[in-house]
Write a structure and sequence with these properties.
Elements (H helix, E strand, L loop, with lengths): L7 E11 L3 E20 L2 E8 L12 H13 L5 E8 L9 H16 L8 H12 L5 H6 L2 E7 L2 E7 L5 E5 L6 H6 L7 H19 L5 H4 L14 H12 L4 E3 L6 E3 L13 E5 L7 E3 L1
Helix pairs in contact: 1-2, 2-3
This protein binds L-homoserine (HSE).
L-homoserine (HSE) binds next to β1, β2 and α5.
Length: 291
């Protein structure tokens, strides 16, 4: 038995997926963090949630962190008798900032650390498990690896290319959530060929804009594959994106929304009631373990 005694702390960044044209492919890690501390016990399951999700998320083994830990323990071939888990959540839930990816990645990374399992579950296997749980790789990739990630699925195999970028970010977070399931349900089964061509060019340009040509960001963040289709579920967010873009600010819907992300600082936008604004930087490290 290699289960470690004593607590393990894992910190995982918020993430923004899509970034405009890179639907289900591009992701960016941001310096806003959820943190969990977990310790193996002889039996039972104790969960404390502080901050986002407190009083809302289940406190049993259906909790997403615990579910992810248990799936990782299955792959690692061992599990502790019990767990004492404390989640300190800052990433808002249901806003398109990767809170579920953060929960999944932090759970798997914590399970691996508790089981001293780096040799049995390497980063590629960890990323695969996180993608299988989340259903797509574009948030779990930057949550795990940090920076800008291009991720894709080959058959069932998740793959990622990570890039270092530094770009100023402002996020505008509305007070009410939109479920990813609802937002995905608004997308059509097929799109016009011209729109696919449009997005392929913009997504390629966006990688160049973020790494070496920031003056291209306004063209590079245009999208025809998802934001318009989802506008009815988040009309205020859509309006804010359009208003910022008219002013020359590269703004997009973050992930499945409804948060708005702008690649800029010091923006003077009139925000609707209840919205929060955060100035963020890119996180370069991804998930980190603190023994
Ligand atoms: N690419 C995903 C979407 C991100 O837009 O639906 C949300 O998980």
């Amino acid at each position: 038995m290699t289960i470690r005694s004593g607590p393990v702390t894992v910190r995982v960044p918020a993430t923004s997926a899509n970034l405009g044209p890179g639907f289900d492919a591009l992701g960016l890690a941001l310096d806003l963090y959820d943190e969990l501390t977990v310790e193996a016990t002889e039996s039972g399951l104790h969960i404390d949630v502080i901050g986002e999700g407190a009083g809302e998320v289940p406190l049993d083994d259906s909790h997403l962190v615990v579910r992810s830990m248990n799936l990782a323990f299955d792959l690692l071939g061992e599990r502790p008798g019990g767990l004492w888990l404390t989640c300190r959540n800052v990433i808002p839930h249901g806003r398109g900032l990767g809170s579920s990816a953060a929960a999944i990645v932090s759970g798997i990374v914590a399970a691996r650390a508790l089981a001293r399992g780096e040799d049995r579950l390497d980063d590629a296997a960890l990323f695969q498990l996180a993608t299988d749980i989340e259903g797509h790789p574009d948030n779990v990739a930057p949550a795990l690896f940090g920076g800008l990630t291009i991720s894709w699925v080959d058959g069932a195999a998740a793959a990622v290319q990570r890039l270092d970028v530094q770009v100023p970010v402002t996020v505008f977070v509305p007070p009410t959530p939109v479920s990813t399931q609802e937002a995905r349900g608004l997308l059509p089964d097929s799109v016009p060929h011209g729109d696919a061509v449009f997005n392929a060019g913009r997504a390629a340009l966006l990688v160049a804009a973020l790494t070496q040509a920031p003056e291209r960001l306004i063209s590079a963040t245009e999208d025809r594959l998802h934001q318009g289709y989802r506008s009815t579920a988040m009309p205020e967010s859509y309006r804010l994106v359009r208003a910022l873009r008219v002013d020359g600010v590269p703004a997009v819907i973050s992930g499945a929304g409804p948060t708005v992300l702008a690649f800029a600082r010091g923006i003077d936008a009139a925000l609707p009631d209840g919205w929060a604004l955060h100035h963020l930087d890119v996180d370069a490290r991804g998930a980190t373990v603190h023994p």
